[in-house]
Write a structure and sequence with these properties.
single chain, Tetracycline Repressor, domain 2
Length: about 220
């Protein structure tokens, strides 16, 4: 029985080393997911505490998470990558919340208004607003060194508007939804930086504009 072969011998597809490594990774999967969640939550807490006066270091984040630098760099190549993940995580949570709110409405107009209210509500709650602003401030340079580029909240949130916009007669529901999402997320960002809560009249006006965008090309051939 031959136990050792030269390194030049081709490795079979079911290589024992690769199989055992995959089994190890599968066993460690839940542990690694727990590490990532601890890092995300700790970073959010530290950024919230620092506000827009200072940017936390990786050492601050791993200390708050009770983990090591090795654990951090096992999952993230840089702090920018961690901030990008926090932005993505927050966008997914907001997307889920918006979908839940929109499901309460029977008409496409009602769904669009719920969507606008849900997005702008991020600036209405003081705790949520201060946390979101701190993350945006820390993410100012995120994307410059990331393979995927700068993370965007507009695109995933816009997907929720495509069906209502199509029902309202938009000839280009995907494009119109993207335009509306950029405008509303931009309005949210303005209110966050100004530390101002959007008034009821502002929310209604923004919703009216979104509906106008959806129906502007109604009946036009795509």
């Amino acid at each position: 029985m031959i136990l050792h072969m030269p390194n030049t011998v081709p490795v079979p597809p079911d290589d024992v080393a690769a199989r055992i490594a995959q089994q190890t990774l599968a066993r460690r999967g839940p542990d690694y997911a727990g590490e990532v969640r601890r890092l995300l939550d700790a970073a959010l807490d530290v950024m919230r505490a620092c506000g827009t006066t200072s940017r936390p270091r990786v050492a601050d984040i791993v200390a708050a998470a009770g983990l090591s630098n090795d654990a951090f760099y096992r999952h993230f190549p840089s702090k920018d990558a961690l901030v990008a993940a926090i932005l993505e995580d927050g966008t997914q949570r907001l997307q889920s919340y918006l979908a839940h709110q929109m499901a309460k409405e029977a008409t496409p107009q009602g769904k669009v208004r719920r969507w606008v209210e849900g997005v702008l509500s991020q600036a209405a709650d003081e705790d949520i607003a201060s946390t979101t602003l701190a993350v945006l401030w820390n993410g100012g340079s995120v994307g410059e060194a990331l393979p995927s580029g700068r993370p965007s909240a507009s695109h995933p949130l816009a997907t929720l508007l495509r069906d209502p916009f199509a029902q309202l007669g938009s000839a280009h529901p995907g494009l119109d939804a993207s335009l509306a999402a950029h405008a509303v997320v931009g309005t949210l960002s303005d209110h966050l930086w100004e530390r101002a809560r959007p008034s009821r009249s502002v929310i209604d006006h923004v919703a009216d504009v979104c509906l106008a965008v959806a129906t502007a090309g109604a009946g036009r051939q795509p």
